[in-house]
Write a structure and sequence with these properties.
Distance between the termini: 21 Å
Number of domains: 3
Number of strands: 38
Strand content: 15-25%
CATH superfamily of the largest domain: Glycosidases
Number of helices: 22
Structural class: alpha/beta
Low-confidence stretches: 332-369, 756-763, 826-834
CATH topology of the largest domain: TIM Barrel
CATH architecture of the largest domain: Alpha-Beta Barrel
Mean pLDDT: 87
Shape: globular
Length: 834
């Protein structure tokens, strides 16, 4: 039981004044003194009386005196420390100082700022600030620390609960036995807009009135809540959130009492967490004179009793506020029980009479589908048409039934608008789209970005909201104009907090616009995909994985280029597994580790397309007699005859290399991939055997399919002797009969893209303006969207992030200015603390 003590609690008036001597020595296992201070890079005291001076005993010394009565009590000062603590302990031959940290619960804060496994490895305990989920910064009531989120919450707000926050930290790599769950001894208050509407998520005009002792609006210590309840407030127990709140006139407070604290302690024990952290010891009823029952520290005492088995003095009972105060009962919402229906009955309902239905048709029914076949994404590069001789590749060389999706790479940005990278690409667009004449089910996307394009243009594009919105809508016009099925975003690579947020914003704006355009046009929604790195370092540096997973239909993971000519020792381009002898860092540079890392960070398996290369990376050996993995290399291998790039060979060029005299082919049984060498030339690549092995692994892991870079580097002419496209065909054959489980329940998963048409709303806006006249209309189903009529043309437009459409002013406005749209107010960062 970890208790925070605040050095400013000494300044509260009357009953609120709290000093170290008010702490019961056996109440907590650990006391954390909050806060220390950094002055000129050195740890220092904060308050003038923290340290003993001029013969006057300071707060530090007075807190430490508690150890005389309870020698096992640990006292810490809250303020890179682990290695220093280890060294100091060895030097003075004493137990090492403990190192803990208080950490946030906001999903954006955690994923954006914490390398959880690394942080956890250094800390003795992780104090999770599981409170301040809601407060006066919002315009609707919400509980300070709900154990579970209410069903009435929005999808985003459903992340804001003690249970979800703790589970997220565990999912991101925090050991349960180090997670100490925060328990507040205070409540967050609101002033209701309408005192007759006092339920959770009711409109509020701001924070509640300041307490007599804590003197802060929107905030009450537990003993101040007790006074409120004893002075006429009504008590409400919310059985969904497993916490209470109180209402008095237009004042509303969400808090914890003994009942909710005991519930949370049972939850902690059931889930195997390390314990409870209290913010703060000085806001419980430390005198035992206000809340009733003559019990000092009723909340912390209940924690101690539940977790440590130490009963309260005289076996004192909890205060039952539902009997002491006015009580209002709110029934938890319940869902009707599921209806069981047989498959035959279901088919009768969804199948028209006398209609033949085969397995494929059933799998393509959007309603109720729980599985689908694996996807095969094939990139085609625009520069492959420029290769000499038999290396020249055109759209007509593509087998239309080879892939489920073809992505033409790459388009570019011109004046921040989506544009063809080359004049010849315009013609190529039409020729690629013509593939659908032979396979109507083929989806064809346009990719923007790429390695050569770099990160800077994307940074510039996303630095201005207006510029980004213009890009989004003009991108739709280009994609529709050439009949593409979607857009693939290849930003290589976002890095840092700003880029991470900008990347999410770009994908979000694209997805919202694609959704809106499909509704207004009646056309199948455009697909949104992205190519993403395999490197665990790149993922951590620039990707909010759970957020981008919401907006992307598919995530193409570039699980190749793990090693190449930029290194001075040979390594395989795309090993499935690591060598046993590899360093801990090198063991992370594999297909298996990278795919698992994306899942670990929150990507749904069904959306992950695992990259499969149809090329190899080559090296020039320093010593031809040393050719194993890790052998010294002087640089890249000789350029291929057709691709013309040092350190690189297409598969058909690898075939030529293998057919040369004195070439040795080696199968690496550890990495499950082949490599070959001849004299001082070495190449690591994938062949039919290694790709079949990867397909078996992919099926076992349950991933959504494969992404191929690229279709033009497989043996598309059949020169290797095993037919055309030997690599891609080997993968397709291995994937036959495999089905992908569809388990992700994101906000847009009900809107199929690329082929499933949506039903038009009969009440939708009809544009009947005169030519040249522009009018604006609200989207009654979505405050963040609106319709713009330009003559008879209708455009479905989104407002910039955090704004809603104001039909009275015909502008995008703050939600609080638009009746019925206040629920779109964005929450600020959670886990605020004094």
């Amino acid at each position: 039981v970890v208790c925070y003590y605040t050095n400013w609690s000494q300044y509260r008036p009357k009953h609120g004044k709290f000093l170290p001597e008010d702490i019961e020595p056996d109440l907590c296992t650990h006391i954390i003194f909050a806060f220390g201070w950094l002055k000129k890079g050195k740890l220092s005291s904060f308050e003038s009386n923290d340290e003993t001076k001029d013969g006057k005993v300071g707060l530090y010394e007075r807190i430490m005196a508690l150890k005389k009565a309870s020698p096992k009590l640990k006292v810490l000062l809250a303020i890179e420390l682990r290695e220093a603590f280890e060294a100091e302990a060895q030097e003075v031959k004493k137990p090492r100082l403990l190192l803990t940290a208080a950490v946030p619960v906001g999903p954006d804060n955690v994923r954006g700022g914490y390398d959880v496994p690394a942080v956890a490895s250094y800390l003795d305990f992780i104090n999770l600030m599981a409170y301040d989920f809601h407060g006066k910064w919002e315009r609707e009531t919400g509980h300070n620390a709900p154990l579970y989120a209410p069903s009435s919450d929005s999808e985003w707000r459903k992340q804001l609960s003690v249970d979800h926050a703790a589970s997220m930290w565990v999912k991101l790599g925090a050991p349960k036995d180090k997670l100490v769950i925060g328990m507040p001894t205070y409540g967050r208050t609101f002033t209701l807009s309408n005192s007759g509407n006092f339920k959770v998520n009711a409109p509020a005009s701001g924070g509640g009135k300041a307490g007599d002792y804590t003197k802060e609006g929107g905030f009450l210590a537990y003993y101040e809540v007790c006074e409120m309840l004893r002075n006429g407030a009504s008590y409400v127990w919310d059985d969904e959130m497993k916490v209470p709140y109180a209402v008095q006139g237009d004042q509303w407070v969400g808090f914890d009492d003994e009942r909710s604290i005991r519930n949370k302690m049972h939850w902690i024990k059931d889930n195997g967490y390390a314990g409870a952290m209290v913010w703060t010891v000085d806001m419980d009823d430390f005198t035992g004179t206000i809340c009733g029952g003559d019990v000092k520290y009723p909340l912390i005492g209940a924690m101690r009793e539940e977790l440590r088995g130490i009963p309260r003095a005289n076996n004192a009972k909890d205060v039952d506020w539902s009997k002491v105060a006015n009580s209002i009962r709110i029934e938890a919402s319940t869902k009707p029980p599921p209806i069981k229906i047989s498959v035959s009955e279901l088919l009768k309902q969804v199948r028209p009479p006398k209609q033949n239905t085969d397995t494929t048709a059933l799998l393509n029914v959007p309603l109720g589908v729980s599985v689908r076949g694996p996807q095969v994404f094939c990139y085609m590069t625009s520069w492959s048409q420029k290769r000499p001789g038999v290396g020249k590749f055109t759209p007509e060389n593509v087998d239309p039934v080879l892939c489920t999706h073809v992505i033409y790479a790459f388009a570019t940005l011109k004046d921040h608008k989506l544009a063809a990278a080359d004049e010849k690409d315009i013609e190529m667009y039409d020729r690629v789209i013509a593939l659908r004449e032979k396979n109507p089910n083929l989806k064809i996307l346009l990719a923007i970005g790429g390695w050569a394009f770099g990160s800077t243009p994307f940074k510039e594009l996303t630095s201005n909201v207006y510029r980004m919105n213009q890009f989004v809508y003009e991108a739709i016009e280009l994609l529709r104009g050439y009949k593409f099925n979607g857009l693939d975003v290849d930003w290589e690579y976002p890095r840092g907090a700003d880029d991470r947020a900008a990347y999410v914003s770009l994908l979000k704006e694209l997805r919202l616009a694609f959704e809106g355009e499909a509704k207004s046009s009646g056309e199948p929604r455009l697909l949104l995909t992205a190519a993403v790195p395999a490197s665990f370092e790149a993922i951590a540096a620039g990707y909010d994985v759970p957020e981008i997973s919401k907006y992307l239909d598919f995530i193409n993971v570039m699980t190749y280029d793990f090693h190449g000519q930029w290194e001075r020792q040979v390594g395989h381009n795309s090993p499935l597994y690591p060598l046993e002898s590899a360093t801990s860092y090198q063991k992370k540079l594999t297909v298996d580790f990278s795919a698992r890392e994306w899942v670990k960070q929150g990507a749904p398996k069904e959306k992950l397309m695992i990259g499969m290369p149809t090329y190899g990376r080559s090296f020039t050996l320093v010593d031809p007699t040393k050719f194993d993995i890790g052998a010294p290399a002087s640089g890249g291998g000789a350029p291929g005859k057709y691709t013309g790039e040092a350190g690189f060979m297409s598969y058909y060029e690898v075939c030529d290399f293998l057919h040369g005299e004195n070439t040795t082919l080696v199968w690496d049984n550890e990495q499950q991939v082949p490599f070959a060498y001849r004299k001082d030339q070495w190449v690591g690549f994938d062949d039919e055997r290694s790709l079949k092995t990867k397909m078996a692994w992919l099926k076992e892991q349950g991933f959504g399919g494969i992404m191929i870079w690229s279709v033009d580097m497989d043996d598309f002419r059949g020169q290797c002797g095993t037919g055309t496209y030997p690599l891609i065909n080997a993968m397709r054959q291995e994937l036959e009969g495999y089905t992908v489980k569809l388990e992700y329940d994101g906000p847009y998963e009900g809107t199929a893209g690329g082929g499933a048409y949506t039903t038009k709303d009969p009440n939708s806006v009809v544009c009947e303006e005169e030519d040249g006249h522009i009018s604006y209309h609200p989207d009654k189903a979505d405050c963040t969207m609106y319709y713009m009529c330009e003559g008879e043309r209708k455009h479905h437009m989104p407002c910039p992030s955090n704004l809603v459409f104001n039909p009275n002013e015909n502008v995008c406005d703050w939600p609080e200015n638009v009746e019925g749209c206040m629920h779109h107010t964005q929450a600020p960062p959670t886990a605020k603390r004094k």
